[in-house]
Amino acid sequence: MKTLDWNPQSHDLKPAKALLIGHDPRLQKSDTQAEYALFANYYFDKTIKDRAFKSKYGLAASAFNQITYITKGKIKPEEVYLTNLCNSALPHAPKGKTVYIPEDKAITGVENLKKIIEENPSIEYLFPMSLQVNYWLQRLGLYQSNTEFVLESTPKTTGIQNEPRYYEPLGKGSFLLICGNRYQVAGGGHTVIPILHAKCFPLNKQFKAYEPAYERMRSYF
C-alpha cells in the first residue's frame, strides 16, 4: 500500500498555497499506514471514529496547526497540500532511533515533489519537516543552504549498516543551522522554510532552542 498525497483541491477545498512535507507514512510505534499523508483526512472528516482516532487526528491537527501558527493564519488548513518524502512503509527503527529513508526512496520522493509543484501553480511555500527530510532535499538538489549542513547531517554508517537501519547524523544540532531560514527551490521561485516535525509541535522545553527560529518564521508573514 502506498500512502496518498493530500491535495485539498481534490477534496472540494481550496487551491494549495503551501506544500507540507513529512517523513514516512506510519506512526512511530504502529504498523498502521496512513491512507493519506499525516492522516490529513482525519482532520477534515468528522465521521471517522476508529480506535486510533486520537493519535491520528492529533498528528494531522499538529501538522495543520503548525502552518497556521507560522503564517499567522494567512495559510489555512484547507490551503495545505500534504505529502511525505517517502510514501511507502519503511522498517521500524530500533527503539529511540529515527527511521532511515534509503536514497532510492528519497530520489522518488524528490521527483514527486517536483511533480506536485509543477501541477499546482498556486503553491508558494514548501515546509519540509525534520532533519533527515531536509538533508535529502539538499543532498539531492531540490534546494540548497550550505555544505556544512549537508556534511553535519550525513547519516552515520553505523546506523545504515544496522539491521534494521536507522538514521543518526554525524553532527549534533545541525538542524539549528537551517530551521526557520528561507531558501529557494533550485530553478524556481518557491520559498522553502525548514521546520520541525508536526509531532514536535507545539514546542515544549525540549525544543526551547528552536523558539528564535519560530519567531523568525512568523516575521515573514
Helix and strand topology:
Elements: E1 18-22, H1 40-44, H2 53-70, E2 80-84, E3 98-99, H3 103-119, E4 125-128, H4 131-139, H5 147-153, H6 157-161, E5 166-167, E6 183-184, E7 191-192, H7 211-218
Parallel strand pairs: 1-2, 1-4, 4-7
Antiparallel strand pairs: 3-5, 6-7
Describe the structure.
The chain is α/β, with parallel strands linked by helices and 221 residues long. It has one domain (8-218): Uracil-DNA Glycosylase, subunit E, CATH 3.40.470. The protein is 31% helix and 10% strand. The protein contains 7 helices and 7 strands. The strands form 2 sheets. It has a 5-stranded mixed beta sheet with strand order 2-1-4-7-6, sandwiched between helices. A hairpin with a 6-residue loop joins β6 and β7 (191-192). The longest helix is centred in the N-terminal third of the chain and has 18 residues, at 53-70. The protein is globular. 37% of the residues are buried. The mean pLDDT is 95.
